């Protein structure tokens, strides 16, 4: 922990080396911790990266932190819980509207707008990501089938799909928060 204190002091001053050392030491632990909460390696990887991005962005305030270990785990826990809350709300919303058989005209227009936004977002994606997304969603191929067809690893397919879905969610979030 004495090393952590030294790294924190250097990090407050903007040292990339100190950040790298803390990242290398804590990232695997943080990712493992988050993966147990989210039950997803991919989400855990993304959230753990977000944790360290926030550590870097708020490095000037780290001088008052007594225990970096506690600080980073509290941040990881909060990010994971926020993710799970958003996921729960999203799933609840989808379940609520899946049961409805009659769509109002307004609801139908809204659904078309959402579909159009998705298509627009996909059309602006890098070629490879767009192809992977379309094979997955439009052709119904599994990640293994896509990987075989494209001659890439399954992990690469998963990463591209996650990035595609993240872009789509961001676009839809901005749309719904602006127009709702």
From TrEMBL:
Keyword annotations: Sigma factor, Transcription, Transcription regulation
Highest taxon, organism lineage: Bacteria
Domain RNA polymerase sigma factor 70 region 4 type: 121-167
Record-annotated RNA polymerase sigma-70 region domain positions: 22-87
Residue ranges that the Swiss-Prot or TrEMBL entry lists as coiled coil: none
Pfam families for this protein: Sigma70_r2, Sigma70_r4_2
Listed InterPro entries: RNA_pol_sigma-70-like, RNA_pol_sigma-70_dom, RNA_pol_sigma70_bacteroid, RNA_pol_sigma70_r2, RNA_pol_sigma70_r4_t2, RNA_pol_sigma_r2, RNA_pol_sigma_r3/r4-like, WH-like_DNA-bd_sf
Family from the record: Belongs to the sigma-70 factor family. ECF subfamily.
NCBIfam families tied to this protein: Sig70_bacteroi1, sigma70-ECF
Protein name: RNA polymerase sigma-70 factor
């Amino acid at each position: 922990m004495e090393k952590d204190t030294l790294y924190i002091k250097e990090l407050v001053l903007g040292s990339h080396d100190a950040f790298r050392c803390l990242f290398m030491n804590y990232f695997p632990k943080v990712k493992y911790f988050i993966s147990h909460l989210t039950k997803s390696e991919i989400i855990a990887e993304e959230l753990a990266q977000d944790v360290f991005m926030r550590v870097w962005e708020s490095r000037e305030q780290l001088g008052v932190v007594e225990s970096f270990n506690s600080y980073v785990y509290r941040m990881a826990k909060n990010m994971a819980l926020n993710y799970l809350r958003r996921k729960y709300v999203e799933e609840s919303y989808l379940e609520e509207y899946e049961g409805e058989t009659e769509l109002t005209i307004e609801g139908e227009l809204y659904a078309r707008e959402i579909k159009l936004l998705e298509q627009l977002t996909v059309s602006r994606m890098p070629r490879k990501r767009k192809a992977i997304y379309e094979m997955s969603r439009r052709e119904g191929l599994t990640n293994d089938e896509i990987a075989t067809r494209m001659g890439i690893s399954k992990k690469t397919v998963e990463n591209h799909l996650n990035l595609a879905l993240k872009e789509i969610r961001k676009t839809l979030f901005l749309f719904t928060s602006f127009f709702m």
